[in-house]
Amino acid sequence: MTFAERLTRAQTVSGSLVCVGLDPDPAKLPSDMALAPQPFLAFNRRIVDATAPLAAAYKPQIAFYSALGKEAELVDTIRYIRERAPHALVILDAKRNDIGNTAEAYAREAFERYRADAVTVNPYMGEDSVRPFLARPDCGAIVLCRTSNPGARDFQDLLIDGLPLYRRVAERADRQWNEHRNLMLVVGATYPAEMAALRQAHPALSFLVPGIGAQGGDLDSTLAAGLNAEGTGLLINSARGIIYAGGGTAAAIHEAAAELHLEINRGRVPGCTAASAGAPPT
């Protein structure tokens, strides 16, 4: 299957636009997980078990693992996602970028070592630094465009021939880099007006959306700005708001994911009911 087909399948099977961020912080792990032989893997297994019917994607941020030498737990986490949620995409949030053989090595890291379906990519160095991540039609590159952080304005709003830089990034990515339809954009929920401009200009592109919850992004504004004509086109990420809900118990994690799932689908499909949010874990 192509990446575009896999994205459609993930959203269709789950009935969801939810992306669960797997960002384990040792200081926030539940007490019953902290002393496990592989605490990150144990906690991630709990999260996946609690959210598998609700998630279209999972997004581990590689820094949380590599900073503590826990890459093996990341590999095993992705393997577990394949077992419990085979429909779901795995997005490696690594923000990779380089040129030549180094970029190709980073692509092998994401797609062969970690077996991710997609990887976040920084386009600052230009087309040749992004191409290696787009060479495999079944895997995707998610290009940083309008990010959710306050400092995004420092460079992304600079005008280039009358348009802000983030618009030029999207324009180049859509028109020149997306032959395999395996490119997405990172567009933060904290900038809904910018998201709306990007959706109008690029109706066929899908957006990975950080910034809901802890960063202050508004879900209703995001849906109004970013949904495409089919009621899709978004993967809405939540990490802290889901995985640490209720102190990280399985029931609380499920409830938080189900609530986000329901709120999104209410915005997509009028009359959505709680029945579509799945049953709680046993």
* Terminal Cα span: 33 Å
When the domains are counted, the total is 1
Low-confidence stretches: 271-282
* Biggest sheet layout: 8 strands, parallel, barrel
Question: Could you write a compact summary of the structure shown?
Answer:
This protein has about 280 residues and is of the alpha/beta class. Helices cover about 45% and strands about 15% of the residues.
How would you describe this protein?
With 282 residues, the protein is α/β, with parallel strands linked by helices. It has a single domain, classed as TIM Barrel (Alpha-Beta Barrel). The chain is built from 13 helices and 10 strands. The strands form 2 sheets. The protein has an 8-stranded parallel β-barrel, surrounded by 7 helices. α3 packs parallel to α5 and α10 (192-201) runs parallel beside α11. The two termini are 33 Å apart.
